[in-house]
Specification:
The protein has 5 helices and 25 strands. By secondary structure, it is mainly beta. The longest helix is centred in the C-terminal third of the chain and has 23 residues. The termini are far apart.
């Protein structure tokens, strides 16, 4: 299968991406690839569902990895890999809607995601186990690419204006008040926002300086913009390190796309040696010497999820690359990681249910 170009993958229009993927896959799909539709997937039990994924090496890793799994007909759902017990479970899947782009809250107790269940893309939140799904935004404009602030108080996202495919800018949803604040007001499409852990700088991808996408930084204190990553090649999808000093980003042309590291202190760029191919969605784990990413693999050119580990925490060294999870049926994109463990989250959930039950009994006996 011919791989999707950066322009197709970077299209902020989810429908456009789905159509492009469907057109390519439908004519090149491997004869041995399993054939399942959304109506069948949502009815599978946990054991049968797990058989749709191949889990690789997870030694030394702990926590939860949420990701989007997309069929070649454009349907997508959100799943989670428990790195501690090596099991996959569905998190948010619906037969008649696409749910995608999950991002964990800093404490791992909630996640934000995108869903078109109401007719167009909107931002939703849910509990860590997929329950308590709520709409965070109710705009008539398509919205996409949520990401949490490090303190868990806000969700950044992209909101379109002026019609589909036109201008798009970054907004902020305040969890407690429900208030929405516009953070950027630029022409063009400004997408995939990430707020630095120190809450001072927003990184985002823009097409304002076409040709190619560029990565820009907006200082929230001075309101000054700097675009350090740009040129003929496409630069996109930057993500912060835990110390706010590094950005991992994708760069390249056509199907030759890799990851790089931008050092804010020195303005230097480190080109990561992750092999040839099409690589996107780089994110730092809770330790900055590990980077998660998606890469096109196998005959179908589906994306699988990998982790690169850098010895002695030196990003200039040759990394040890492990394939975490793949699927012959799905293309796996947009990983989000939390160090929170299922056993701890389940324990807290059980205690909360017990407290609510005791409170109800007390109120009924008064």
């Amino acid at each position: 299968m011919a791989p999707l170009t950066p322009l197709a993958i970077l299209a902020e229009d989810k429908q456009q991406l789905s159509q492009a993927s469907s057109a390519i896959n439908s004519t090149n799909q491997s004869a041995s690839q399993p054939q399942l539709k959304a109506v069948e997937i949502v009815k599978l039990d946990s054991e049968r569902l797990s058989e749709l994924f191949q889990i690789g090496e997870t030694n030394g890793l702990s926590g939860l990895l949420a990701f989007t799994a997309e069929l070649n007909d454009g349907w997508s759902g959100i799943f989670v890999l428990d790195l501690d017990d090596r099991k996959v479970r569905s998190l948010i899947i619906q037969e008649q809607a696409n749910n995608f782009y999950p991002t964990w809250a800093p404490d791992g107790k909630q996640l934000a995601f995108v869903s078109n269940r109401n007719g167009h893309n909107q931002i939703f939140t849910a509990s860590w186990f997929g329950g308590n799904q709520k709409s965070a935004t109710q705009s008539k404009a398509p919205e996409d690419h949520p990401s949490w602030s490090a303190d868990g108080k806000n969700i950044l996202f992209v909101s379109e204006s002026g019609g589909r495919g036109r201008d798009a800018n970054v907004k902020q949803f305040e969890i407690v008040s429900g208030k929405i604040i516009q953070l950027t007001s630029f022409k063009g499409r400004n997408s995939t926002p990430r707020l630095s852990p120190n809450n001072q700088i927003i990184s985002y991808t823009t097409n304002r300086f076409w040709p190619g996408w560029d990565v820009c930084l907006l200082d929230l204190n001075t309101r000054l913009e700097n675009c350090p990553l740009g040129g003929i090649k496409t630069y996109c999808r930057a993500s912060w390190s835990t110390n706010s000093r590094l950005l991992v980003f994708s760069y390249g042309l056509l199907d030759d796309v890799s990851l790089g590291i931008y050092q804010l202190d020195t303005s230097k760029i480190i080109n990561l040696n992750l092999g040839s191919g099409t690589i996107y969605d780089g994110i730092f784990m809770n330790q900055d010497h590990r980077i998660l990413f998606s890469k096109a693999v196998n005959k179908s050119e589906n994306f699988a999820l990998f982790v690169a580990e850098f010895p002695k925490q030196d990003l200039t060294t040759m990394p040890i690359i492990k394939q975490l999870i793949s699927s012959e049926l799905f293309s796996l994109r947009y990983p989000s990681y939390t160090s929170a463990k299922t056993i701890d989250l389940e324990g807290e959930r059980a205690r909360a249910l017990q407290q609510n039950s005791q409170s109800t009994i007390t109120n009924n006996t008064r």
